Amino acid sequence: MYDPTIFENLKVAFENHVYDLDNIERKIDIKNRVDLMDLSVIARAFKIEFTLADQQDITVEIILDASLEDLAGEILEIGNKNLGCTLELKFIKNIQNPDLQCEEIEQAINNVWEDDISLTQTLSFAFGTELSSYKNTIEVKFDQKINEDQISDISVFLDHVLETLEILFKI
Q1: CB 15 within 8 A of CB 85
Q2: What is the mean pLDDT of residues 117-123?
Q3: What's the half-sphere exposure (Cβ side, CA atoms, 13 Å) at 141?
Q4: What gap in Å lies between CA 48 and CA 15, rounded to an integer?
Q5: How confident is the model at residue 152 (pLDDT cuts 50, 70, 90)?
Q6: pLDDT band at 2, cuts 50/70/90?
Q7: Residue 43 in this model has a pLDDT that exceeds 80
């Protein structure tokens, strides 16, 4: 019998929780969903993008990745204890004052997520248009891999994602 991988189990758990937030609780609106198998490096990726239902200006994308090493190690039952998936959040927000707002965003995200994250903010704008705002891509990468042991934490994790969206909306 087929035994699903850590990636498959986490992907389904995330999908279930996120779709409940959209369809049952009506707290969010899902904008996009991607389920990839990258054959060039034999890796898996799952991405789901959404906004708060009442605040469409800021999006978040949850990104779950599994590398060849993690997938093969699990399927071949190699004794590596550090098998799992990487988890990342990508928030997109328009800002007008990067010197002030980027610092506020960094402080707010560090307050919500505390330790074990890497935070990157990348600013961009459309060339040839009047520069009135920047697109800020805020990447939050979690340092530790996750596995099925964290499935019960997904609900709390998503509460933190919603809290972050609400805080970013106010900045």
Answers
A1: no
A2: 96
A3: 9
A4: 8
A5: very high
A6: low
A7: yes
